[in-house]
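Reminder to self: tokens first, then the designed residues, so the page reads top to bottom the way the pipeline ran.
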């Protein structure tokens, strides 16, 4: 579960550095989807979405697609708001999907080294479902590495942040947000693990995002992050069978809930 929280941190921070996304996250009145109010449920929801988008059937994706559209319809800026946004905005949805793929690319390269051109093309093709499951039109998804990198660079050029969003994301990245829902237990987790989790977040961020968050980065930080990567690489080498089981468990949970008529999101 802590690894899932880590994924949530990175993915959410990437996305929320585009102000329309970040402000929507902070202002959202859909409490069941808020990491600060329902951290475990939010982590499970993230895992379910990624599992369905990457490994699910078209029927699974169609269900999630409709559910996402319905939930996002409730996340819009109020009239006269300083930051205007709609969670169903095609531009914002495309940015979120690009961030999801960028996160997967970064994680793969941290663990296994640079992608070959063949791997990159395959990941880009397979990653299209990260976008279409989020209601991005298929024709909006890049088909070449050059198109994807241009889309990423254009998004990075537009990132911005206000203090309200920065404070929210900082508490997400150092686990302080767990105190809202878990009280003393959350405070204990924050104190014991918060600095380590924040280091991982800072280390994995591109410099532009790190600067936007006002995160420092020292030579000592880099050494500690490098030691973390060595440990994670070793873990992945000896436990390759675990990770597919995790994705399958998310799919099983979604299909079981649907069959029993239980709420999924």
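Designed residues (265 positions):
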């Amino acid at each position: 579960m802590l690894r899932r929280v880590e994924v949530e941190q990175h993915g959410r921070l990437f996305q929320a550095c585009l102000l329309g996304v970040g402000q929507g996250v902070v202002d959202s009145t859909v409490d069941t989807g808020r990491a600060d109010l329902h951290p475990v449920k939010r982590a499970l929801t993230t895992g379910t979405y990624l599992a369905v988008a990457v490994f699910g059937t078209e029927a699974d994706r169609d269900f999630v697609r409709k559910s996402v559209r319905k939930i996002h319809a409730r996340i819009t800026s109020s009239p006269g708001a300083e930051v205007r946004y709609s969670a169903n905005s095609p531009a914002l949805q495309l940015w979120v999907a690009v961030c999801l793929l960028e996160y997967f690319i970064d994680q793969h390269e941290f663990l296994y080294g640079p992608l070959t051109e063949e791997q990159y093309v395959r990941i880009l093709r397979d990653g299209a479902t990260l976008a279409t499951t989020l209601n991005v039109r298929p024709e909006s998804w890049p088909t070449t590495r050059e198109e994807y990198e241009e889309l990423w660079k254009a998004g990075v050029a537009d990132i911005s942040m206000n203090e309200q969003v920065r404070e929210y994301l900082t508490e997400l990245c150092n686990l302080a947000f767990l105190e809202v829902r878990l009280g003393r237990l959350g405070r204990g987790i924050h104190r014991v693990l918060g600095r380590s989790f924040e280091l991982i977040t800072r280390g994995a961020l591109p410099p532009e995002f790190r600067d936007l968050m006002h995160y420092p980065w020292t030579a000592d930080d880099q050494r500690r992050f490098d030691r973390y990567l060595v440990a994670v690489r070793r873990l992945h080498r000896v436990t390759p069978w675990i990770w597919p089981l995790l994705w399958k468990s998310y799919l099983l949970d979604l299909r079981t809930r649907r069959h029993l008529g239980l709420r999924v999101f």
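Residues 1-5 have pLDDT under 50 and may be disordered.
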